[in-house]
From TrEMBL, chains A, B:
Protein name (record): MerR family transcriptional regulator
InterPro entries: DNA-bd_dom_put_sf, MerR-type_HTH_dom, MerR_fam
Domain of life: Bacteria
Transmembrane segments: none
SMART domains the UniProt entry points to: HTH_MERR
Residue ranges that the Swiss-Prot or TrEMBL entry lists as coiled coil: 90-117
Species in which this protein is naturally found: Actinoplanes flavus
Domain (HTH merR-type): residue spans on this chain: 1-68
Keywords: Coiled coil, DNA-binding, Transcription, Transcription regulation
CDD domains per record: HTH_MerR-like_sg3
Length: 120, 120
DNA sequence: CCTTGCCCTGACGCCGATGTCAGGGCTTAC
DNA sequence: GTAAGCCCTGACATCGGCGTCAGGGCAAGG
């Protein structure tokens, strides 16, 4: 499978796949003409990468997940190296949720104040 | 008051104040030598700006709040123009909170799976 | 006079994932 | 042979708030 086909199947672009490769997430073989050649298993890997990115992980955080998948595990998150990253990200998300919740409270208070303001 | 003093009092930097000015949030007078001259009321404005930034508003969103303060109101958020922005931001925050909550749930599920995995 | 310390403007750097353009090669079909 | 459609590498652009450096002016004190 060439890069364009994998990109289509994964719902992304060749540019993006080359970016993942540059960051060590995927390592395709090369045809004689230099074209990247991917086997079907890579589709799974790319999906894993994109899911994790969508969940706010950085490309560097994702490496252990990919390694875990490549090691033959049923999912990228079942290895202890992945768990470390998962816990770190969970802490970040909790932190963010806390701050955002505070922000929301302030916003609602301010909006409430506007509505009350017209009945002095 | 010169820019350095205002920056110190507001807990920020001259660079930052010039940035706000470039984006139309503050308009200091100029001394004969070209130095920016601020009166004490600007400290209040800068605080308002920084609070809103910390709550995730963009510089352009902040203009109505500043205008509202300048118009003599007790707070920047009591004007209808501010309310429009407040509601928009509240919607964004709610959206974000929803997505982050989903992410957190997935993270916790995956961590749970790791712990269970060692007792097959 | 010279240093110190403030001020000025303008411009580039950052971060992260991706788009996009430039310039060039291979393959396949007409 | 040539046009179409894929592939390659490399490099610049994006967004936003700010750091930081470059190059230069003004004021006050030794």
């Amino acid at each position: 499978m060439l890069i364009g086909e994998l990109a289509d199947r994964a719902g992304t672009s060749p540019r993006t796949l080359r970016y993942y490769e540059k960051h060590g997430l995927i390592r395709p073989r090369r045809d004689a003409n230099g074209y990247r050649q991917y086997d079907d298993a890579e589709l799974r890997v790319v999906h894993e990468i994109r899911t994790l990115l969508a969940d706010g992980f950085g490309v560097d955080d994702i490496k252990p997940f990919v390694a875990c998948l490549r090691a033959g595990n049923s999912a990228g998150h079942v290895c202890p190296e992945s768990a470390v990253v998962l816990r770190r990200r969970l802490a970040e998300v909790d932190e963010l949720l806390g701050r955002l919740t505070d922000v929301r409270e302030r916003l609602r208070d301010q909006l409430k104040e506007i509505r009350c303001q017209m009945t002095p």
